[in-house]
Amino acid sequence: MVETPTYDLTVFQVPYGKRTLKIYTQGERVLRVEVIVHNTREYRWGRSLPCLGEIVTRLRGMRERFWNAVGCLGAGFVADDTLESLPLPAPVGRTKVGGIDFHKPRMRPVAEAVLALSPSPTSTAGFAASDLAQKVRKMNGHAEADYGPRRAAYDIKKLQAKDMVRKIGPSRRSESVPEGLRAIAALLVLREKVIRPLLAASQRSESPFKLNHPTPVDYHYENLRAGMRNLLAAPGMVAKGSTILFHLYPISV
Q1: Domain check: are 33 and 130 in the same one?
Q2: Who is most buried in 1, 52, 180, 203, counting CB within 10 A?
């Protein structure tokens, strides 16, 4: 949730049950990151004064994981060889697992679920295969028979093989790697928010409606649209006389 209660103030909140992760500005040069517990009875942390140290330690860990995830998502990038190596099989220990193809409907929800679970303020770091399966089903409305913990465990292995996810010690939980999180975010944004809308709109004709009072942003958009049309016409992706309309998706955290 993004709120703007007063002028020049933006509050970014991510609620998780009785907990809330919050980022907001305090003054012109201070950025605050907080973890709020609304009701401690929901968790088995204890409520007495001797438990305060453990509670603060848990909350500090949640805040650090949340801040790291936000930092990775705000600066996504893809290495030069990532696109070529992702679809290729890779080993995890002595086991060889398949590659990752974000064009397949199964892997895109998995990648989106990993992004959603990365800042989750759980009491322990990382996520299990059951957590990933539950998140994928919740985001896509699948039944448990369609995507269960078994398939999620195999997908986690594939992400581990590409150094996007790593196992946490001897446990069965995994956590996202900062470099992998940046790559996942960049690949999803490029495919879903840039390439897909651009190609989908390549056959649409130009709108006959013109703005009566165009702003400088409108002029910049028109120049960008014309530049993209010429860029795609050069390699033969679209006929030179056709018009391309596309949408811009600003990303802000």
Answers
A1: no
A2: 180
